[in-house]
Automatic annotation (TrEMBL):
Gene name linked to the record: cpg2_1
Organism: Blastopirellula retiformator
PANTHER family recorded: PEPTIDASE, PEPTIDASE T
GO molecular function, one term: carboxypeptidase activity
Cofactor binding mode and count: Binds 2 divalent metal cations per subunit.
Keywords: Carboxypeptidase, Hydrolase, Metal-binding, Protease, Zinc
InterPro entries hit by this protein: Bact_exopeptidase_dim_dom (IPR036264), Peptidase_M20 (IPR002933), Peptidase_M20_dimer (IPR011650), Peptidase_M42 (IPR008007)
Family: Belongs to the peptidase M42 family.
Location of the active site: 150
UniProt protein name: Carboxypeptidase G2
Required cofactor names: Zn(2+); a divalent metal cation
Binding site for Zn(2+) 1: 117
Signal sequence segment: none
């Protein structure tokens, strides 16, 4: 079918309404309620809506709501398509008042972010579905997915009840940046929580009886730095990054510190190399324990827990979702570019769940900052792309 254009005044109104709804991670209930109400008003049926229990599986005990899944029956014989975006914003954006200033939207409050990451993505997906329903546009079977808790570790996508999606053949995610940049891969990330335990003693009266947890941590970190395993890491033409971001410990200068808590991370586009970096970091701390002893030959210990936040992935250039995305953008007169992200996306976990997913931007600038803006023209382009993907224009 021929390309179709989204209704610009309606889509702009929709994104403004979404931006004004408070909804940080674990507090997405009102966002989900608004999305459902808009779809029902456009002609959706109650039986199309489901909430999964991802909120019961994430890190927030009182998280309000799970992922919202909407399955829309098709009117043409074509493979099911998934359109998705995450509902939560970072805390900086909660309570903002969106205002138009020239060709952008921004927060009226100078100390708050806009929350276009990712209410703009929600607006793209919601607008496409509402236009289809209101105008009775021919369309394939559609699944809409609005995830929770993306901003605190992709927990909504990680804990997604995939059986609710009805096995989509093509999948598309809207998040930050240019609407014609297709993110077809993303880095993998591993997070460490390390407790270095020493033996406390009086630092003036009996320092020799103590085992300094600070010394253990310092030795481990120094070894990693010297070995090239911190910062930008390049070994044998493989690369990644690692960082020790938080170190806390100690109570007084006259006590040999017996506990240091460390938070660290490692990232790579290569899962094998990511695992190697994880092993190097763990080994450095275990080795450091052996090097710090008191007068009695006693050592401290180290407890290391960690989790894979998201696996790296890279879609093939001929993946069906990539091809449809490129063809749709070309049909609208735009030029697409392929990119790989150095941060995690919900698409990482969709890929892990067996659903290769392409990610688009929808005009957000300066996400997670008080200077965040939404480029209105880019947002409208994203709405056109989303609508044409949803109706299978190509």
């Amino acid at each position: 079918m021929a390309s179709v254009a989204a209704n610009r005044p309606k889509s702009l109104k929709l994104v403004k309404q979404l931006l004004a709804i408070p909804g940080g991670s674990g507090r997405e209930k009102q966002v989900a309620k608004f999305i459902k109400a808009e779809l029902l008003a456009a002609g959706a049926e109650e039986s199309w809506f489901r909430l999964d229990k991802a909120n019961k599986l994430g890190p927030i005990d009182d998280a309000e709501v799970g992922n919202l899944v909407v399955t829309i029956p098709g009117t043409i014989d074509a493979p099911r398509r998934l359109l998705m975006a995450h509902m939560d914003t970072v805390p900086l954006c909660v309570g903002c008042t969106p205002v138009k200033k020239g060709e952008v939207l921004e927060s009226k409050e100078k100390d708050l972010g806009l929350g276009a990451d990712n209410r703009a993505g929600c607006a793209v997906v919601l607008n496409a579905a509402c236009e289809i329903l209101r105008k009775n546009l021919p369309h394939p079977p559609l699944t809409l997915l609005f995830t929770i808790e993306e901003e605190i570790g992709l927990h909504g996508a990680r804990n997604l009840q995939t059986s609710l999606l009805k096995k989509p053949a093509l999948a598309f995610n809207w998040d930050g940046g240019s609407p014609t940049k297709l993110t077809v891969g993303a880095i993998g990330g591993y997070r460490f929580f390390i407790d270095a335990h020493g033996i406390a003693s009086h630092a003036g009266v009996a320092p020799e009886r103590g085992v300094s947890a600070i010394a253990i941590a310092a030795l481990a970190i120094a070894k990693l730095q010297k070995g090239g395993w911190l910062g930008k890491v390049t070994k044998r033409k493989k690369s990644g990054s690692a960082n020790v971001g938080v170190v806390t410990g100690g109570a007084a200068t006259n006590v040999v510190c017996d506990l240091v808590k460390i938070k660290a991370e490692a990232r790579s586009h290569d899962l094998t190399f990511l695992n190697e970096m994880v092993a190097q970091i763990e080994t450095a701390f275990h080795d450091a324990v052996k090097e710090v002893k008191n007068i009695d030959g006693e050592t401290g210990s180290v407890e290391i827990t960690g989790r894979l936040d998201y696996e790296p992935f890279r879609l093939a250039d001929d993946d069906p979702s990539v091809e449809v995305a490129q063809q749709t953008i070309a049909a609208l007169g735009y030029e697409s570019e392929l990119a790989v992200a150095n941060g995690g996306l919900d698409a990482n976990w969709l890929f892990r769940h067996g659903i290769p997913t392409v990610s688009f931007g929808c005009g957000q600038r300066n996400p997670h900052m008080s200077t965040e803006q939404l480029n209105i023209e880019w947002f409208h382009q994203a709405c056109d792309i989303g609508l044409n993907i949803a109706v299978a224009a190509v």
